[in-house]
């Protein structure tokens, strides 16, 4: 998995740069496939990012528009914050409107940079998906139901994967892949190829890997000490009874 990269300002404070493979964002994200409409403007030539941010604008880029061409944009800071509360990196279709070109199309939010001190958006990157065919996204796994192995047998649910990398058309991006674990018992496991996938969605992760399993009950040190004490007491009782029987005979 790609590691978090760091950028530095004149103040030497690192700007957290979150790649599309990293979902640990400091702002709460709710993965969803809902459509969002965001308005932005083309960034003025020779404009300075610092000056833009002081005026309440967040620098952004749109990639994938007309081949390899990219467009420098600005987005209102409050609009960017609302976007990050409703959308999710690499999982939400965003209807992006560039009001002064004009241009409008479906995009994915590919990358977010967050200011480490203010915890506010610092830079956003969008990818235009129209006309590019299937796209690769990260989709969360949603485990539902009370597993028999946990509820009745005292086991523990072990989720090896919390999200999957999938390929699908932009309009088919699922909110999540739901996995019912209700009938799973201790020792049971589900591999990736056994998970129910929405139509048109292909998993890119290794299909033979285990996605979720039910582990046996864990014995805590305290419980282990209790069992050892009980076993020792049972052994002592048996030894006493044997000795008593020998003396009686």
Which helices and strands, and how do they pair?
Elements (H helix, E strand, L loop, with lengths): L4 E4 L5 E5 L17 E7 L6 H6 L2 E7 L7 E6 H10 L6 E6 L4 E12 L6 E8 L6 E10 L3 H4 L4 E4 L3 E6 L8 E4 L8 E3 L10 E2 L6 E6 L5 H28 L1
Parallel strand pairs: 3-6, 4-8, 9-12
Antiparallel strand pairs: 1-2, 2-7, 3-5, 4-5, 6-7, 7-8, 9-11, 10-15, 11-14, 13-15
Can you characterise this structure?
The chain has 249 residues and is of the alpha+beta class. The chain folds into two domains: 5-132, Ribosomal Protein L25, Chain P (Beta Barrel), CATH 2.40.240; 136-215, RNA Polymerase Alpha Subunit, Chain A, domain 2 (Beta Complex), CATH 2.170.120. It has helices spanning 49-54, 77-86, 148-151, 221-248; strands at 5-8, 14-18, 36-42, 57-63, 71-76, 93-98, 103-114, 121-128, 135-144, 156-159, 163-168, 177-180, 189-191, 202-203, 210-215. The strands form three sheets. A six-stranded mixed beta barrel has the order 3-5-4-8-7-6. It has a four-stranded mixed β-sheet with strand order 12-9-11-14, with no helix packed on it. It starts with a strand and ends with a helix. Mean pLDDT is 79; it is low at 1-33.
Overall outline: elongated
Query: How many runs of DSSP E, i.e. beta strands?
Result: 15
Task: Order the strands across the largest sheet as they lie in space.
Answer: 3-5-4-8-7-6
Which ranges are low-confidence, i.e. pLDDT below 50, for 5 or more consecutive residues?
Answer: 1-33
CATH domain class name of the largest domain: Mainly Beta
